[in-house]
From TrEMBL:
GO terms for molecular function: 3-hydroxypropionate dehydrogenase (NADP+) activity. Keywords: Oxidoreductase. This is Putative malonic semialdehyde reductase RutE. Its EC number is 1.1.1.298. Transmembrane segments: none annotated. It comes from the Bacteria. It comes from Schaalia odontolytica. It is an enzyme of class 1 (oxidoreductase). The keyword Oxidoreductase applies. Residues 32-189 form the Nitroreductase domain.
Amino acid sequence: MTEVSQSLSPESQLLEAMNARELLAQLFTEAHTAYTFTEEPVTDEEIHAAYDLAKWAPTGVNGQPLRVAIVRSGAAKQHLLDALPSGNREQAEGAPLVLVCGAKMDFHHDLPSLHPRGERYEKLLADNDKMRALMAHTSATIQVAYLILALRAQGLETGPMNPDDAQLLHDYFFPGEDIEPILVINVGHAGPHAYQERGPRVGYDEVFREPQVNA
């Protein structure tokens, strides 16, 4: 019986490598924080598609504490602007869509349906407020990072910002829920003069180390 080779031709390998480089550029090396946006709307389908990518990335014990309020206009937009530093309000006001990202602090109650040992982790975290709060914030924060990359993969531009009044965001967007706002993301398509000159980054040698530990 004749076997069909599954290997790619040199031309296909080159095309695949080029596509990979273009994707890395879109996600990382050529991507910038956007400060202005066009009026082109961001659809629910685009946000849904981005989340359907981001949700598969790893978190601690597969916890899923991220909760997101979608803000487009009207009174919701005004309440959002009131909670931002004055220097960031113009950016958010011009964005067609803003995501208010929060950490669900009682996320441990969801773990039995998310992890094979979820009931055990639920009990462990129920008895340890400090660990539960730390895990809620760290897992939600890395989920936000995944979401930013997924939004970029959808061809959207993002501008993450810290709120000035997290309590106001909670009271308006997550009332009655144990959710702590952690970040706001402007989302849309880049407008005129959307980007600043890229700033420097800390180098590998300053970030990474391999401690010499005596036996």
